[in-house]
Amino acid sequence: MSLTTSQPWPPADASLRRRLLGLFSACLAALLLPMSFSGGAVATPAIGAALHGSALEMRWITSAFMLAFGGCLMAAGACADAFGRKRIFLLGVGCLLLTSLALAMSHSALAVDWLRALQGVAAAATLAGGGASLAQDFDGHARARAYGLLGTTFGVGLAFGPLLAGVLIARFGWRGVFAATAAIAAFALCIGARCMRESRDPAAAGLDWPGTLSFTGALACFTYGVIQAPAIGATAPEVIGSLVFALALTIAFVVIERRVAHPMLDLTLFRYVRFIGVQMLPIATCCCYIVLLVLLPLRFIGVHGDSEIVAGLRMMAMSLPMLVVPFIATQLARRIPAGVLCSSGLVLAAVGLVWLARTAGAPGTLHSGVLNPALWPMLLIGAGSAVPWGLMDGLSVSVVPTERAGMAMGIFNTTRVASEGVALALVGAVLIALIGTHLPDLHGAVAPDVAREAVNRLVAGDMRGAMASVPAWGEAALREAYEQAFATLLDRLAIVTLLCAAVVFACLGGKRRAGAADLGEPSTDMSPR
């Protein structure tokens, strides 16, 4: 995203009060995004129970949001530059308001899925427009502080989103989660419409439609195939066809981006080894942190039988470090190479995953209130993940030439959000497959599609639905199979996290220290190292 504006900074009519209120509006919107993500996960069991959705429909409640968010983020950034940052921001927040109201009034799980996808598109426009607008109203250290506050607000949403969702569900039902989102969106919309200044890039080349459509299509087809596979079988023509189509669209996207004059994604940036290392950071934090923001509430509520409030309180053990550790990491990065810090944090998170796997299903972990043995490894996972979380935004623009920093940030944000949607789909499919290997063999007494539906319901947090599908398994067998599979999954996520840590260290862990450059100042070094 280009930071060019049609008006010089500072604008003659820009008062400090107006700029601060514009920042407040952007921060309110930033608070909505993690709440929309984690709140939907906490509300999934309640939505499934109230609307009697299928297991597949329940899995799409979160995946639809993340898929649309990741697929549209770069396109939203291009539209913000071309048509106006304030306009795109207000359009995004307005759509968040409308979709949240519609979600609060939905009467079918399928409608919830489609509205969550629209909410993801709105979230992409909100993030792209709001972030670019701040760059026009603040400069130098003030800009760094503004973005720091924006990031802190996002961290607050991550930390307290599950708890807030749990409180709202306990008091008002699952519809209260979306009604609260609509109320905050309305507040942000009113302030932003009054106080934000419009700006655009007069040299913007417009939207790369072929690249955007092929990228979004590839992401959608791959996610669809991975989510459908456990429900209808991995060899089903529908699954194979969607995966093949995803591969074809991916190849088409690469060809398009290599030939188009103004590509959505400049593939030549991957000549820089350090840039590749930076792209591994969101993938790693997704595997060791983001997927657990969805899986753990479903496990606590749907499998352990905890209330939404208790589940939200437990999730704070993993999310609270995001409020403190990123700041500590930025201070340490002035003395320690950023690659060493990031890889060390990922190793800590991997240790936490292995530790959490050892507590899965252990005595005392079920029905033990808010405090239980799982909290300590969750705290370690959160602290380890927060180290690269606090550094990777600055690193994303510091490892490429200055004039390409906008494109680098766009690629990084797309990698971050798109990898989250893909990882959620993959991890869910792996967990379903692992549970199937631990369930008792009923010697063909249950049809394969019925058994798949039961396991899918279990992963979606619907223990009662799973028991109703196959009563012969019983609650004890289902829970034991889930806990054993969940422990195996955590071990595998730890291995992936360690592999990512090794790549990050190899690409970023040299003797070069972060200093001011890696804390947000774009590099002028042109060598692809």
Walk me through this protein's architecture.
With 529 residues, this protein is mainly alpha-helical. Helix content is 76%, strand content 0%. It contains 18 helices and no strands. α15 (448-459) packs antiparallel against α16 and α16 crosses α17 (474-508). The protein is globular, with a radius of gyration of 22 Å.
Structural class estimated from helices and strands: mainly alpha
Low-confidence stretches: 1-14, 512-529
Mean pLDDT: 82
What's the count of strands? 0
How are the SSEs ordered, and which strands pair?
Layout: H1 16-51, H2 55-83, H3 85-104, H4 109-137, H5 140-172, H6 175-195, H7 209-232, H8 237-259, H9 273-303, H10 308-319, H11 325-332, H12 338-359, H13 375-398, H14 405-438, H15 448-459, H16 463-469, H17 474-508, H18 515-518
Helix pairs in contact: 1-2, 1-4, 1-5, 1-6, 1-9, 2-3, 2-4, 2-7, 2-14, 2-15, 3-4, 3-6, 5-6, 5-10, 7-8, 7-14, 9-10, 9-12, 9-13, 9-14, 9-17, 10-13, 11-13, 12-13, 12-17, 13-14, 14-15, 14-17, 15-16, 16-17
Which features does this protein show?
single chain; 529 residues; mainly alpha; 0% strand
Question: Summary?
Answer:
With 529 residues, the protein is mainly α.
